[in-house]
Amino acid sequence: MTTDEALAIVDQVGAAQKKNRP
To answer: Global pTM?
Structure first.
């Protein structure tokens, strides 16, 4: 896994968590 891939995953997870908050 490259650093760019890891950063992309972090961005996706962060966006999902923010979206789930009321």
So the answer is: 0.50
**CA gap 8, 17 in Å, rounded:** 14
1-22: burial string, b at 16+ Cβ within 10 Å, e else: eeeeeeeeeeeeeeeeeeeeee
Q: Which amino acid is at 20?
A: N
Q: State pLDDT tens for residues 1-22.
A: 799 999 999 999 999 998 887 7
Give me the DSSP letters along 3-21.
HHHHHHHHHHHHHHHHHH-
